[in-house]
Amino acid sequence: MSRNTHAFDLARYLDARTATVNRALDRFLPKAAAKPATIHRAMRYSLFAGGKRMRPALVLAAAEACDGNVPNALPAACAVECIHTYSLIHDDLPSMDNDDFRRGKPTSHKVFGEGIAILAGDALLTQAFEILVQAKPTARYPHHTLVLELARASGSLQLIAGQVADLESEDKATSLPQLRYIHERKTSALLCCSARLGGMTANCTPTQLRALTSFGYHIGLAFQVIDDILDVTQTSEKLGKTAGKDVAAQKATYPSIVGLEKSRKIAAQLTAKAFAALQPFKRKAAALQALAHHLLHRDN
Ligand code: GRG
User: Fold this and answer.
1) Residue 12: other Cβ atoms inside 10 A
2) Is residue 124 within 8 Å of residue 89, measured between CB atoms?
């Protein structure tokens, strides 16, 4: 990987960006006491439970790679985090993955009950679009283009399609192409959308948008392969969610189909493709490169 990656202080960058995103989310969301307080407390509970904020960081870093700025990219960064958090709340429900633990805390339905958890997810999904339309449109990317981008990534052909295919694959033999189909939609779609939205808020050129698309797609897939690996190599404490769930549910994962070593190799190959896509940005890609490197080597 490039020498720039190691010179870039990603920990400092992520701390600063996370603090900025958290302040913006706090401003964008209704106050916890706003009536009915239960729903606003539930939305905030999951949103501020301590996620890694990788998708917002990707939005901001992509914008910066295209000479954009953080304030203009913040609504998109907060919108993708709202979509992501909604998907986690719903994924943890008893009717889906039935998980008690997320982001190191009891899941939404454990704290607020199933009805409120469903509604908190619904409200965050809707909130995402209300936040996104507060972005400043650019010459190439009017509001409807931004909305379409996020709606498509979250809709029944992408995020939801991944979840449906995942549910339907339980207890069935799954091939590698089928697993890739799930990962492309369940995970890569929103990471790819994050990179693209970042570029759009910076009025990126079509060449830059293509580069961000390839970058986001490949790190999105690498992210999920690593997630599969961590499920079998890390503890629940480290992950902040229940480890070993894929094995317990006999879910198809990269390690279960090709083994751990080959899975690590595939994640590295995908990350190398993501790196290659950044070529048009030259030195402006330092944050994106550091993020890709970090995602490949993360341990939670
Ligand atoms: C719409 C219900 C519904 C689901 C869509 C996104 C999704 C499919 C399900 C969520 C659970 C899951 C395993 C998703 C795959 C993507 C992934 C690894 C999410 C975890 O992302 P992190 O590690 O989480 O960035 P934090 O908590 O750090 O933000």
Assistant:
1) 9
2) yes
pLDDT of 3 reads 42
Write the pLDDT tens digit of every residue in 149-171.
999 999 999 999 999 999 998 87
Number of domains in the chain: 1
Place of tokens 């039935």: 98
Report CA Rg, the chain: 18
DSSP 8-state assignment for residue 137: P
Alpha carbons 133 and 141: distance in angstroms, whole number: 12
Closest to 134 (Cα-Cα) out of 149, 122, 152, 147: 147
Alpha helices (runs of H) in 234-299, residue ranges in sequence order: 236-239, 245-248, 254-258, 260-277, 286-297
How many angstroms separate the CA atoms of 80 and 173, rounded? Answer: 32
Q: Say whether pTM exceeds 0.90.
A: yes
Q: Which domain holds residue 24?
A: 3-296
The gap from C-alpha 122 to its chain's centroid, in whole angstroms, comes to 17
Residue nearest to atom 24 of ligand 1 (CA): 51
For ligand 1, whether the C-beta of 160 sits within 6 Å is yes
Question: Which residue's CA is the nearest one to ligand 1's atom 10?
Answer: 88
* CATH number for the domain that contains residue 51: 1.10.600.10
